[in-house]
Design brief:
It is a single chain. The chain is of the alpha+beta class. It has 5 helices and 11 strands. The strands form 3 sheets. The protein has a 7-stranded antiparallel β-sheet. Strands 6-7 form a two-stranded antiparallel ribbon. It has a two-stranded antiparallel sheet with strand order 10-11. The radius of gyration is 16 Å and the shape is globular. The termini are far apart. The structure holds flavin mononucleotide.
Protein backbone atom coordinates (compact mmCIF):
# COMPACT_ATOMS: atom_id res chain seq x y z
CA UNK A 1 0.00 0.00 0.00
CA UNK A 2 1.51 3.32 -1.04
CA UNK A 3 0.19 6.20 0.99
CA UNK A 4 0.50 9.83 0.06
CA UNK A 5 1.16 12.77 2.33
CA UNK A 6 -2.03 14.60 3.34
CA UNK A 7 -1.86 18.39 3.72
CA UNK A 8 -2.34 19.20 7.43
CA UNK A 9 -5.41 21.44 6.88
CA UNK A 10 -7.16 18.31 5.59
CA UNK A 11 -6.53 16.20 8.72
CA UNK A 12 -9.79 17.22 10.33
CA UNK A 13 -11.70 15.57 7.51
CA UNK A 14 -10.30 12.20 8.67
CA UNK A 15 -11.30 12.69 12.30
CA UNK A 16 -14.56 14.53 11.90
CA UNK A 17 -16.95 12.57 14.12
CA UNK A 18 -20.18 14.19 13.11
CA UNK A 19 -23.07 14.16 12.96
CA UNK A 20 -23.30 17.67 11.64
CA UNK A 21 -25.56 19.65 13.96
CA UNK A 22 -27.71 22.74 13.79
CA UNK A 23 -27.06 24.86 16.88
CA UNK A 24 -29.95 27.15 17.68
CA UNK A 25 -29.87 30.13 20.03
CA UNK A 26 -32.13 32.97 21.00
CA UNK A 27 -30.84 36.33 22.08
CA UNK A 28 -32.94 39.43 22.76
CA UNK A 29 -35.95 37.68 21.25
CA UNK A 30 -34.13 36.82 18.02
CA UNK A 31 -33.73 33.15 17.16
CA UNK A 32 -30.78 32.01 15.07
CA UNK A 33 -29.25 28.77 13.88
CA UNK A 34 -25.78 27.80 12.66
CA UNK A 35 -24.25 24.61 11.31
CA UNK A 36 -21.76 22.92 13.63
CA UNK A 37 -19.52 19.94 13.06
CA UNK A 38 -16.72 20.55 15.61
CA UNK A 39 -18.15 18.88 18.67
CA UNK A 40 -17.13 16.07 20.96
CA UNK A 41 -18.62 14.06 23.83
CA UNK A 42 -17.04 14.66 27.23
CA UNK A 43 -19.19 12.70 29.68
CA UNK A 44 -22.02 10.12 29.73
CA UNK A 45 -24.07 11.41 32.64
CA UNK A 46 -24.99 14.11 32.76
CA UNK A 47 -24.20 14.24 29.05
CA UNK A 48 -21.51 16.85 28.41
CA UNK A 49 -20.66 18.01 24.91
CA UNK A 50 -17.80 20.29 23.94
CA UNK A 51 -18.13 22.41 20.84
CA UNK A 52 -16.13 25.03 19.01
CA UNK A 53 -18.10 28.09 17.93
CA UNK A 54 -15.97 30.70 16.18
CA UNK A 55 -16.02 34.20 17.64
CA UNK A 56 -16.75 35.40 14.09
CA UNK A 57 -20.11 33.65 14.18
CA UNK A 58 -23.15 35.67 15.19
CA UNK A 59 -24.09 32.69 17.36
CA UNK A 60 -20.96 33.12 19.48
CA UNK A 61 -22.17 36.10 21.49
CA UNK A 62 -25.69 34.65 21.81
CA UNK A 63 -24.22 31.49 23.27
CA UNK A 64 -21.78 33.34 25.51
CA UNK A 65 -24.37 35.76 26.85
CA UNK A 66 -27.45 33.54 27.17
CA UNK A 67 -25.50 30.37 28.02
CA UNK A 68 -28.23 28.32 26.37
CA UNK A 69 -28.71 26.56 23.06
CA UNK A 70 -30.29 23.55 21.39
CA UNK A 71 -28.24 21.01 19.44
CA UNK A 72 -30.54 19.82 16.67
CA UNK A 73 -29.58 16.73 14.67
CA UNK A 74 -30.57 16.93 11.00
CA UNK A 75 -30.66 14.11 8.46
CA UNK A 76 -30.02 13.85 4.73
CA UNK A 77 -33.41 15.34 3.77
CA UNK A 78 -32.23 18.59 5.39
CA UNK A 79 -28.89 18.81 3.51
CA UNK A 80 -29.83 22.06 1.74
CA UNK A 81 -30.77 23.72 5.00
CA UNK A 82 -27.62 22.42 6.67
CA UNK A 83 -25.28 24.07 4.18
CA UNK A 84 -27.51 27.14 4.01
CA UNK A 85 -27.25 27.67 7.76
CA UNK A 86 -23.49 27.23 7.50
CA UNK A 87 -22.99 29.59 4.57
CA UNK A 88 -25.10 32.48 5.84
CA UNK A 89 -25.00 34.55 9.01
CA UNK A 90 -27.88 35.44 11.25
CA UNK A 91 -26.47 38.97 11.29
CA UNK A 92 -28.13 39.55 7.94
CA UNK A 93 -30.49 36.61 7.35
CA UNK A 94 -33.44 35.16 9.25
CA UNK A 95 -32.37 31.58 8.66
CA UNK A 96 -35.56 30.05 10.06
CA UNK A 97 -37.64 31.91 7.46
CA UNK A 98 -35.13 31.65 4.62
CA UNK A 99 -34.58 27.91 4.95
CA UNK A 100 -38.08 26.91 6.01
CA UNK A 101 -37.09 25.69 9.46
CA UNK A 102 -39.88 25.44 12.03
CA UNK A 103 -39.02 26.65 15.54
CA UNK A 104 -40.72 25.10 18.54
CA UNK A 105 -40.35 26.28 22.14
CA UNK A 106 -38.00 24.15 24.20
CA UNK A 107 -38.96 22.98 27.69
CA UNK A 108 -35.96 24.16 29.70
CA UNK A 109 -34.08 26.73 27.59
CA UNK A 110 -35.04 29.81 25.61
CA UNK A 111 -33.46 28.66 22.34
CA UNK A 112 -35.90 26.94 19.94
CA UNK A 113 -36.02 23.30 18.87
CA UNK A 114 -36.04 22.72 15.11
CA UNK A 115 -39.08 20.57 14.35
CA UNK A 116 -37.64 18.98 11.17
CA UNK A 117 -34.64 17.51 13.02
CA UNK A 118 -35.08 13.95 14.29
CA UNK A 119 -33.46 14.77 17.66
CA UNK A 120 -33.04 17.91 19.76
CA UNK A 121 -30.84 18.43 22.81
CA UNK A 122 -31.61 21.32 25.13
CA UNK A 123 -28.29 22.53 26.51
CA UNK A 124 -26.81 24.89 29.04
CA UNK A 125 -23.24 26.21 28.92
CA UNK A 126 -21.50 24.91 32.05
CA UNK A 127 -17.85 25.76 31.42
CA UNK A 128 -16.30 28.70 29.59
CA UNK A 129 -12.69 28.20 30.67
CA UNK A 130 -11.50 27.24 27.20
CA UNK A 131 -13.64 29.78 25.38
CA UNK A 132 -11.08 32.56 25.22
CA UNK A 133 -8.32 30.30 24.00
CA UNK A 134 -10.16 27.88 21.69
CA UNK A 135 -13.73 29.19 21.34
CA UNK A 136 -14.61 25.96 23.14
CA UNK A 137 -17.89 25.77 25.02
CA UNK A 138 -18.78 22.91 27.37
CA UNK A 139 -22.50 22.17 27.21
CA UNK A 140 -24.61 20.05 29.52
CA UNK A 141 -27.59 18.37 27.92
CA UNK A 142 -30.56 19.11 30.16
CA UNK A 143 -33.30 17.51 28.07
CA UNK A 144 -33.25 15.30 24.97
CA UNK A 145 -36.01 14.70 22.42
CA UNK A 146 -36.07 12.05 19.69
CA UNK A 147 -38.51 11.01 17.01
CA UNK A 148 -39.16 7.33 17.82
CA UNK A 149 -40.17 6.59 14.23
CA UNK A 150 -36.62 7.25 12.99
CA UNK A 151 -34.67 3.99 13.47
CA UNK A 152 -31.48 4.52 11.45
CA UNK A 153 -31.10 8.30 11.03
CA UNK A 154 -29.29 9.25 7.85
CA UNK A 155 -27.09 11.82 9.57
CA UNK A 156 -24.51 13.91 7.72
CA UNK A 157 -20.81 13.73 8.61
CA UNK A 158 -18.58 16.48 7.31
CA UNK A 159 -15.42 15.33 5.57
CA UNK A 160 -14.27 18.86 4.80
CA UNK A 161 -14.49 21.11 1.76
CA UNK A 162 -18.19 20.50 1.15
CA UNK A 163 -17.98 16.69 1.22
CA UNK A 164 -20.27 14.75 3.52
CA UNK A 165 -20.62 11.10 4.48
CA UNK A 166 -24.14 9.84 5.05
CA UNK A 167 -24.85 7.38 7.87
CA UNK A 168 -27.85 5.13 8.07
CA UNK A 169 -26.88 1.52 8.69
CA UNK A 170 -26.62 0.03 12.21
CA UNK A 171 -24.59 -3.12 12.89
CA UNK A 172 -24.18 -4.90 16.25
CA UNK A 173 -20.74 -6.11 17.47
CA UNK A 174 -19.50 -7.52 20.83
CA UNK A 175 -18.14 -4.18 22.03
CA UNK A 176 -17.39 -3.62 25.73
CA UNK A 177 -18.02 0.10 25.45
CA UNK A 178 -21.52 0.94 26.57
C1 LIG B 1 -20.68 21.67 7.34
C2 LIG B 1 -20.35 22.90 8.16
C3 LIG B 1 -19.84 22.73 9.43
C4 LIG B 1 -19.53 23.85 10.22
N1 LIG B 1 -19.03 23.66 11.47
C5 LIG B 1 -18.72 24.75 12.24
C6 LIG B 1 -18.23 24.57 13.56
O1 LIG B 1 -18.08 23.48 14.07
N2 LIG B 1 -17.93 25.69 14.27
C7 LIG B 1 -18.08 26.96 13.76
O2 LIG B 1 -17.78 27.95 14.44
N3 LIG B 1 -18.57 27.15 12.52
C8 LIG B 1 -18.91 26.07 11.75
N4 LIG B 1 -19.42 26.24 10.50
C9 LIG B 1 -19.60 27.60 10.00
C10 LIG B 1 -20.82 28.31 10.57
O3 LIG B 1 -21.96 27.49 10.50
C11 LIG B 1 -21.03 29.59 9.77
O4 LIG B 1 -19.95 30.47 10.02
C12 LIG B 1 -22.37 30.25 10.03
O5 LIG B 1 -22.59 31.22 9.01
C13 LIG B 1 -22.46 30.95 11.38
O6 LIG B 1 -23.74 31.49 11.49
P1 LIG B 1 -24.08 32.73 12.43
O7 LIG B 1 -23.17 33.88 12.02
O8 LIG B 1 -25.52 33.00 12.18
O9 LIG B 1 -23.79 32.29 13.82
C14 LIG B 1 -19.75 25.15 9.70
C15 LIG B 1 -20.29 25.30 8.42
C16 LIG B 1 -20.58 24.19 7.65
C17 LIG B 1 -21.17 24.37 6.28
Amino acid sequence: MVKRSLPLPKVYGLLEPGPVLLLSTSHKGRANVMTLSWHTLLEFEPPLVGCVVSENDFSFSALRLTRQCVLNIPTLEMATQVVGCGNNSGRSVDKFATFGLTPQPASLVDAPLIVQCHANLECQVVDLRLMKRYNFFVLEVLKAWVDPSVKDPRTLHHRGYGRFMVAGETITLPSKMR
